[in-house]
Input
Amino acid sequence: MNKQEAIVRVIKLRELINYHRRLYHVLDQPEISDQAYDSLEEELRQLEEQYPDLITPDSPTQRVSGAPLAAFAKIRHQVPQWSFADAFDEADIRAFDKRVKKWAGRERLEYVCELKIDGFKIVLTYVEGLLKTAATRGDGMVGEDVTQNIRTIASIPLKLEQKVNIIVEGEIWMGQKEFKRINDEQAKNNLPLYANPRNIAAGTIRQLDAKIVAARQLDSFIYDVAQADFGLPDNQLAELKLLQDLGFKVNKHFILAPDIEAVIKYWQKWQNQKNKENYWLDGVVVKVNDIRLQQQMGYTGKSPRFAIAFKFPAEQVTTVVEAISLQVGRQGTITPVAELRPVLVASTTVTRATLHNEDEIKRLDVRVGDTVIIQKSGDIIPDVVKVLTELRPHNTKPYIFPDHLPGIGAIKRLSGEAAHRAVNNNTFAQVSRRFHYFVSKHAFDIPGLGPKQIDILLENNLISSYADIFKLTDNNLLALPRFAEVSVKKLIRSINSRRQITLARFVTALSIPQVGEETAEDLAQHFGCLDKLMRAGHEELAQINGVGEIVAGKVVEFFADKANQKMVADLLEQVKIERVEKKQAGKLTGQSFVLTGTLSTMSRDETKQKIKSLGGEVVASVSKNTSYVVAGTDPGSKYDKAEQLGVSILDEKAFLKLLGE
Output
């Protein structure tokens, strides 16, 4: 076969293979045998080997290609990735229906119901109809580039039916049969069994070798168009059909529900049928069908207002409380925990469940030795639902909070608070937790210096203050167990790279009670330097947006403490706080702005910088003193707060006009 004949043959083979791939992996309607399909792929592979310049990225032979990756690159999402709010019972879903109708000003609304697949979210970007990138959800703004692995999944099209630019979202999942096959292999090789298909699907997608991914036969369902360069349908039902027409695998069990009663009926039906499918289900996703209304409703800070995840009731099992232990946090809060006889709940082994506080223990009347009903609320948090007193042993006694704890000392419950707290805030347990937080990504962010390393340093008296971290030397560390020469040098470099820090991160790292990342940012923006913050009075602090009376009291108390003053002074001998740029007088001087949503003309950081350059102030939360809320696309709860308080809201056009652009 000459080159010209090969070109024609390769084009026809690709078209035919993609046609049968879609029939088999997307529509479940195969027309030829697996052997015949494999034969077509083999002929294409041989032709491409003979003429390598004919290989294209969307060729069926390129689903597994390239050497194993060293690490995953990061991808910034073009469209923020939200998660759904949850409804757990009929009362929750009726409340959602009421909220949506009130917002829309309508007496009747249609919903689209889709099965909620218990898998791993993926974001796919196509350019001119060709798969460009596949990214994990990550933190909603930045995910990991897993394109090479996603290409191995046969139900994911490498080339769409149309040459369009589009970003879609979906779920990667592993079937029950494949899950069983893999666990059978694990058992055969005397290896630990995997807990559930969701976990192994997530772990598989994060394999650095695409050949391992290909061997595990993952599958997909695509359910949403996040962005496109063409006009989209005006309703959710049509959008799902569009995805099917483009070549994506869409779960076939979606329905149009004329009202909330139909939604509830669909939810009840699938509670009984969920175990019949090859994939795991954990609920139903309910969306307003009218897409224009979806766009008008927008998003809160975390989730869409027009949709909700109607979760199936959590799996409940019984087990025995073998002990009740008490944990101490870095701020001295004592949390009771039920130590349980190990039990499988929603395919995860549970050995502990929080009891929250003394009041919750009394409400449940939970005792050591009790048989209790356990559930994973929302399939996430282990929770004690009920005590089966009928099975209670005769010798049990009500649990009484002690007034002392080993290693903690005296504990007490302050008036007006539900929690007990340690009287002494300087026990090893609390000190170690504060050090853990100091080096965490929220504060100084020192890679390689985690909780285990911190505990070793504390136990060997190499550190007793934050400043001591920056005084560590190679000789100090090499004398410790599990500290090798290469890792020690790397750790010292890591520590030294963090000798300069922003004021906001510095304040966060101090573990001031009630002061988290956002409040630390508010304080840094207001005062500009640490010295002014340390000398600030209660009244000035309380008036700052995002602070208030309680936090102001905690800040004043913290910096009035002589030991804290010395701790800060010692730390400042080792690190330098970056200069906070003073705002120049400009047309926005004296005006404060809160940002919500996404602007098309500039990034969030660029927007902040522009406001500051004109003398304005960017604050984290909305109050009656806020001058403007700048609302881009998909605004969050700050938009609602501004409406409630009567604060002026600027869309992007009005904001740019205010800037003079």
About this structure: The two ends are 63 Å apart (CA to CA). The mean pLDDT is 87. The chain has six domains: 3-62, 86-311, 316-413, 428-498, 503-577, 592-659. The chain is about 40% helix and 20% strand.
